[in-house]
Input
Amino acid sequence: MRAPVAQGSPAAFESEHLWGPAGHSTWEPALAVDPNSRWVYQMTTEQLPGDYLLFRSSGDGGATWNPVQHLCLNVAKKPGFQYDPELAVAGGTIYAICLNDFDPGIVFTRSQDHGTTWSVPARLDGSLKYSDKPILLVSPAGKDVYVGFSTGYALHVAASHDGGTTWSAPVRATTPHLWYYPYGGALAPDGSIWFSVDAEAGVKQTGDGRIGLVTSSDGGKTWSTKNLAATHEGEPCPYKECYPDFFTGQAAVGIDRAGSMVFAYAQNLARRGPNALYVMRSHDGRSWSAPLLVSSKGNNTSPALAAGPTAGDFRLVWQDNRNGHHAWNTWYARSTDAGATWSAPVRLSDRGSGAAYKHAAGYDFPGGDYLGLTVDANGVNHVVWGEGSGVYTPAGTWWTRGGP
Output
């Protein structure tokens, strides 16, 4: 079933902005807003030998930005790549994670002065020898912090219940022998934890997969999995340095203040077919609506969901190439009825120049395989994503704000 289109004026966004040193490649960015102030924070990965992370802050909602700083979370004895950043804010504290290579893997730090100084980085994956694609969730008061991450054929979760001062040993949250990757997550008003996951089969992650949720209602001690959709090997990816499972069944979940849930996911219905974008709705996380088709134009990827400041308000961002093979764009839609209807898509990547990979119809390819979306207390959307000529380089970090 195709999702009905809600009537109303399209959201007003600023023209997209490029962030990053001139002539350098950056990719896979993250962002967060302080729900009680106008502070906004962004991170991205600068691709240099020994990749490292860039961080910046804005105290006026993104109108102006403070100087960029390097936020290097290296806990290894030898230099390693720094990438896959995640940010969250609660109680005025910034929480950040990233990968310090695959081993030692995920590290955590926090700042209580808007990013001027940071705590000593802490390794979160214990004795595990591989970790990838972390997702960070923080409770509104900042006491409970959860990090879900892939360890190959499982999803593990590390938890802290004192704001990140101490951490539990990672708990294995899944049992099937599948490559589990979390692409989003949310905390419900009742304290339950939800990670949206893609579970891929095969040595090269190209077999049939499952899309769904991994959840806990006891503070991360025990976990269960709810499969919501199936997917198949993705469309072949001919772009520079692309990997076989780039067009995997990525998924996102959002939960509003009333506990209503929306699950968005990219799914192909045939092996090596393009992904369409769907949503499901739930009021309890146990029973879910039939899928609603949001976009079937081109190949759809990288969905991100965020709840707005009022009940039933959800925002959705994704990338697709409806305009042509080398004409990808970043799109936005909004629902005010808990996902039952959605506004017509708004194109956020609106500049036809500014880099060699940009054209009037769009950009060559997504830079990286995920993007960031958050909504501030005034209902303004903040979006950040990657554009490029291939998965890695050349690529750039682009962002905008606006809405609702």
The radius of gyration is 19 Å. Residues 254 and 306 are 5 Å apart (CA to CA). The chain has a mean pLDDT of 93.
